[in-house]
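Form 7-S
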Amino acid sequence: MNRATPLIRDFAERLIAYETGGNKFSGTKNPAAFPVCEKLRPHLATLMGNSGFRALLSRALARAEADVPSLRAFQVKADGSLAGLDKLEVQADPEELARGSVVLVTQLLGLLAAFIGESLTRRLVREIWPKLSVNDLDWGEGDNNEKTK
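Output:
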């Protein structure tokens, strides 16, 4: 089941815009997904270990590559960070990198919601980005992995 819904994609776009101050690349060719993934990494590594986060990000990257083939230049390193930007330096298309960033963050959030539930995913996002409004985050399918109160 692919939990990367249009609502999650909209939120991924908002999250990237928030994290980059509205500038998708802040004057560099660095994909906007990098800072988002880097902020998520220590929190998720605490929950699932470095190997667990690496597996989650690797799966998100594999799914994102299906929509944005240029993401194949990236790899997930052993510590869970993204590498491979140097392979794109010459041929990097800023629009393609922006689209790839959104798709990657969308897939990561979708997988996270599938594994730990939407409520816990929202709570984690609130903890990492406390000034970002998450009150309207309802990804529409309920939390099948969580008990109702």
